[in-house]
């Protein structure tokens, strides 16, 4: 933010508001800096006739109407690559936390329950089968880390990747039937909304583990609660939610859930690199140079 303010005229406004007010504040702005969660509504973009570049601090694009951007010739950039390792790290941390009951054990000790008996057994990730829903950069890095635990990797994506390690299974339900744990790492948006359905959770089974580090909309939260209550799914660990930061109370109170507040990319290294990419994309746009990380097809 300091660099932005030193180099450019910066105006701050929230993601909502009356388009008329936005026009008065941002009508002559040519660049919009946002993040993946807030995105840019069509009303906001319509209130910015001078808009030529949207630069996203993050990799999520589901909150931006990319077709509208294409129709107006608005370039869009994101910050891929630099947050891949941090997101994959957290995915593995959530796998470990849920399978080894780490978060539950922390609550158990703090509540003074240890003197009444032992917590009970978890299970090891080693030599288990891991499914990854979405085999982009983040999914591939999760697979690389999981192989250190001698896990067998299975994945689902739009197309198979025969050049990469892992076994391709197109159908998410069949993928879930095959594995012990399923990590969601695909893109958000209408095409993946509710993709992890109750059928997927049933297929994972009463000993299965679901982890979501993608977008909250990909997992049907109502179906997740029903599956857990019916003991159709063993446990889940979620870093993202459908209506952040509002999390349904039933999720908060369920003992078989590990919950974190959308912190997958929240490391010093990742956030600094993300900020640098935002600045570099803006500088390239202003200088009429090629953008470092344009969103393909926009």
Automatic annotation (TrEMBL):
InterPro entries listed in its UniProt record: D-isomer_2-hydroxyacid_DH, D-isomer_2_OHA_DH_cat_dom, D-isomer_DH_NAD-bd, NAD(P)-bd_dom_sf
Q: Which GO terms describe its cellular component?
A: cytosol
**Which residues belong to any copy of the D-isomer specific 2-hydroxyacid dehydrogenase catalytic domain?**
4-295
Give the CDD domains listed for this entry.
HPPR
Q: Does the keyword Metal-binding apply?
A: no
In which domain of life is the source organism classified?
A: Bacteria
A GO molecular function term, named singly, is: NAD binding
**Where do the D-isomer specific 2-hydroxyacid dehydrogenase NAD-binding domain residues begin and end?**
92-264
**Keyword annotations of the record:** NAD, NADP, Oxidoreductase
Which protein family is named in the record?
A: Belongs to the D-isomer specific 2-hydroxyacid dehydrogenase family.
Q: What is this protein called?
A: Hydroxyacid dehydrogenase
């Amino acid at each position: 933010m300091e660099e932005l303010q030193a180099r450019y005229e910066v105006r701050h406004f929230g993601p909502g508001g009356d388009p008329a007010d936005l026009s008065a504040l941002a009508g002559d702005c040519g660049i919009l800096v946002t993040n993946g969660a807030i995105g840019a509504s069509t009303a906001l973009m319509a209130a910015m006739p001078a808009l030529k570049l949207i630069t996203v601090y993050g990799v999520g694009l589901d909150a931006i109407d990319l077709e509208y951007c294409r129709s107006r010739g608005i370039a869009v950039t994101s910050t891929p690559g630099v947050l891949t390792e941090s997101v994959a790290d957290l995915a593995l941390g959530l796998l470990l936390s849920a399978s080894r009951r780490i978060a539950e054990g922390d609550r158990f000790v703090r509540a003074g329950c240890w003197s009444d008996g032992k917590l009970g057994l978890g299970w090891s990730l080693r030599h288990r089968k891991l499914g990854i829903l979405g085999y982009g950069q983040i999914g591939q890095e999760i697979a690389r880390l999981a192989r250190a635990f001698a896990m067998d990797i299975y994945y689902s994506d739009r197309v198979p990747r025969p050049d990469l390690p892992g076994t391709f299974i197109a159908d998410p339900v069949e993928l879930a039937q095959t594995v012990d744990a399923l990590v969601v790492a695909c893109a958000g948006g209408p095409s993946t909304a509710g993709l992890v359905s109750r059928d997927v959770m049933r297929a994972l089974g009463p000993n299965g583990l679901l982890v979501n580090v993608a977008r909250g909309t990909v997992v049907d939260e109502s179906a997740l609660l029903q599956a857990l209550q019916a003991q159709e799914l063993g446990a889940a660990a979620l870093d993202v939610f459908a209506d952040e930061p509002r999390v349904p109370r039933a999720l908060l109170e369920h003992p078989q859930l590990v919950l974190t507040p959308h912190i997958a990319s929240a490391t010093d290294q990742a956030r600094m690199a993300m900020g640098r990419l935002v600045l570099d994309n803006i500088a390239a746009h202003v200088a009429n140079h090629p953008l470092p990380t344009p969103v393909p097809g926009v």
